[in-house]
Here is the input.
Amino acid sequence: MNPISFLTQMIRIAVPYLFAASGGVVAERSGIVSLTLEGFMLSGAFAAVLGTNYSGSPWIGVLCGITGGLIFSMIHAVATIRYRADQVVVGVAINLLAIGVTRFFLKLFFASSSNSPRVAGFGGNIHAAGFDNPLLWIGVLIAPIVAFVIYKTPFGLRVRAAGEHPDAAESVGVSVTRVRYVAVAISGILAAMGGVYLALDQHQFTDQMTAGRGFIAISAVIFGRWDPLRAAAACLLFAAAETLQIQLQGSHAIPSQFIEMIPYALTIIALAGVVGRAVPPAALGRAQG
Amino acid sequence: MESTNLSVPSEPIGAPLGGLMKPDAGKVEVNGRDVTGWSTNDAIAAGIGIVHQHFMLVPTLSVAENLVLGCEPKARGIVLDYDQAAQDVRKLSSETGLVIEPERLISDLSVGEAQRVEILKVLFRGARILVLDEPTAVLSPPEVRELWTVLRRLRDNGDTIVLITHRLDEVVDLSDTITVMRAGQTVARLKTAETNPAEIARLMVGREVSLSAGKRVQPLTRAVRADAGKGLSIQNLSVTGSRGIRVVDDVSFNVKPGEILGIAGVEGNGQTELIETIAGLRAVAKGQISIDGVEITRRSVANRHDAGLSHIPEDRHRRGLIMEYTVGDNLILGLQKHFSENGIIDRSRVMEHAMEEISTFDIRPPNPLLAARTLSGGNQQKVVVARRCRCDRVHPPAAPRRTSRGESNPPRQRRAQ
Here is the structure.
């Protein structure tokens, strides 16, 4: 096995996770459960392909993808913050809604129930191994940027306060509602970027193309104990397991299903407290006001 | 709250501000300015700082982070200036005498230290009017003395202090003027120098009260039955708390039949954990618990009940009652097997039982079909006590005063067994 090709493939696989998990960290630290990452990714992927297809420019596609994720994240935010609906139930509904909506528009715009036509993308130089894609570099840098925002800026301090003790934040005049809206919007944008990368990398949208990547990102958030850099490390670990599975294909040394289980098995182990206790933000999942 | 007038001149320490609840009628003025419909931000801007009874501090953040939350100092436009924050905290600390390290996490502080942070927090926001809601409830006597020193210093600096308390000695000790409230209404405004504890107590309760009773320790005149080996026995009990720290350390005591044991101490010093361990809700790290000589250290909660132990929890919302269940159903909680036949609950027997308990314990309103949440706190407590008196003998009640504050104590008559 070539270590360079292993690393480059691992990073390419990790990018959607890095985007989505970074978004998940922001929303969850503010107290909003991020079961919705899968739906945000899927809507971002579809909107990006739609935008690229009609404009011919992948950058317009990126903007459309972000808008798609933003729309879905605002549905989530209004339901859970404004109307105080249960975050887990709404989260599941958002994921199902995203599957239905993308499938419906796939049929409407592209007259297909399985995939869109081929669209433009970034890079494509065969020798660059995907590293001529600007989205990949943004993805690699996104976790440190989120860590900086969470730990070094006033907004980050407010996000952490809103997720741990919203009443304390309110009592000093911080609007927990506003902080959470912004945090959910950020999670929508970042998770959608993960979907955009995925779709433009494959130059098309296929039905349910995110295939559980949003859930792996949530696993990374939990495994990383709600810390952006640790979550990013978890994303890389999960991506490494996947790369291993792909590169071992044909050898039949380990059944591929066992490799696919790794993220989920690790999450269960993390939650069970084997590698230090995973303590979620105290107000996670609780409506405020 | 009904109609209350409260005016506090600048400087003296006096005894519905803050903007968390809106007044239905009336007016709030600060320095002559009408600020009635204000928000939390307006209250802060007007210079009012509330020190809440339950601390409004984020446990996972540092002292400095809690202090600057909402009014963060910035460097280079977007970055939170931690150095500036720590420096500001140190400066304020040395000015007020409220000493605390800005880098420490709130979750590592003692209750007294957390309160210091709470006071620093409102001062940090430029509050000149300090409202303290029952600040001494969680403090030990030396911590209270320390707090008094700080409050006097703030007063001498020209700050206004509103102290909400039900402890007479504190009122007399510290205040310049007193506003007595009863049932949401102002009943009197007094000058501390011209009044005395007896008068304040009379105004608080609405009738003469004897202040000496309860102050002196009454010698035990009743003979405790000397049943050897009977009752509750705790031997060298140690318990580890949720944060991995030993919260109960080698505690031993015996309570004989016919005896009441009081456990004294400031809240948060292991009492809750001790009670929960006896009740079977927490694991024992070391030691033994036995009832009538039978060891129950590792038995289940249900098993302990059968052995004669019953637990009246500190927090009835969390552990005492199911708020959405009816009074009747709450009264048979845990006893349902005695009220069912072939796995089906006999409703008429539940009703009969409920009516009986409602009249014995004077639960109001006397309707077994009301949801527990619709009852007042005191009446909810009666439901808990009634259920526990049904078939049990040993009661460890945790902090009963907190559970029925402001209401008459629930009757605790014992039923014939």
Notes: The domain at 234-309 of chain B is CATH 3.40.50.300 (Rossmann fold). Residues 172 and 196 of chain B are 8 Å apart (CA to CA). Residues 9-25, 400-417 of chain B have pLDDT under 50 and may be disordered.
